[in-house]
TrEMBL record:
Record organism: Paraburkholderia ultramafica
Protein name (database record): HTH lysR-type domain-containing protein
PANTHER family cross-referenced by the UniProt entry: HTH-TYPE TRANSCRIPTIONAL ACTIVATOR TTDR-RELATED, HTH-TYPE TRANSCRIPTIONAL REGULATOR
SUPFAM superfamilies per the UniProt record, alphabetical: Periplasmic binding protein-like II (SSF53850), Winged helix' DNA-binding domain (SSF46785)
Domain of life of the native organism: Bacteria
UniProt KW keywords: DNA-binding, Transcription, Transcription regulation
Amino acid sequence: MNQLASIRHFAKVAECLSFAEAAKQLGISSSAITRSIAGLEEHLGARLFNRTTRRVSLTDTGQSYWERCTDLLKQLDLMDECITSAAGKSTWSLRLAACSLYVSTDLPDVLSAYLVRKPRVSFDVTVFDNMGDIAANDFDVCFNAEGHLRDSSLVCRPLAQTRDVIVASPTYLKRCGTPRTPAELSSHDVLLASDAPSRHWEFRTNHGTQRVVVRPILNVQSPLVVKRAVQAGLGIARLSHSVVHNELADGSLHALLNDADLCGAERTVWLLHSGQSHMPLALRSFVDFVVARYHQKPQERNEVHAAHVGTTHPGDMLIADSWPH
């Protein structure tokens, strides 16, 4: 029995809780991984998994063994990275998850700049519109932009801030008129992005909070599609300033209701990654590069200063709670 191979097989099954899925990810047959786990259990003299026709779960012994195997495999991977890096042969692959807002603005520039320094890195990018659609084990690094960061067991590093603005094209405003007060929005055509707040937009006034019911004629997931629809004159939209700043600068879009205080307009761009004690060199290199890039280059948006919690690195903010699965 190749014990190290069996341990890797065991760790993958423990991660997936499925022999078939683990075999698929490892590129081997289901029967091979079944024999490997059976051999490991015989070697240890203990059952590692509870198996039924419908589900696979770890036994108490299996859970304890997995925790120790995870640390061992991370150490082995670090050893391999150190040797390949020293030999100048390191080829890294990182799994990224990013909200559509970040993908349509900063991510291409960030990856391009990083590849100048580390040309042998490849990226597998998952784009999402709702953070609840992905799980923490789906990525190595995640970029998200939201007003209030949900509770997370991940290390959360603030990169920058942006604000939502209400925009329309000159063509639309010429045809339908320019709203001068928030209340006038209710009579206009509105385009919604999937991550926009509700169909009620709120504004702070001298008389308190004013809620305006908007009339959406289009609701799509991509902020880029919404921007293009606004440019085409379909209606008024609420978009992040980072998405439309070029169009505002060249006059192809106009910002509306600048004197009104839009509630919930602030968004923080976050970088999230696991708080594992032995971070792979590739992951540490990329995270450090991204944080340094945002903290060193002038930002159109207000820079968010890092918070220090416990023993996390400068710039980390660790919110210890639960992560949606």
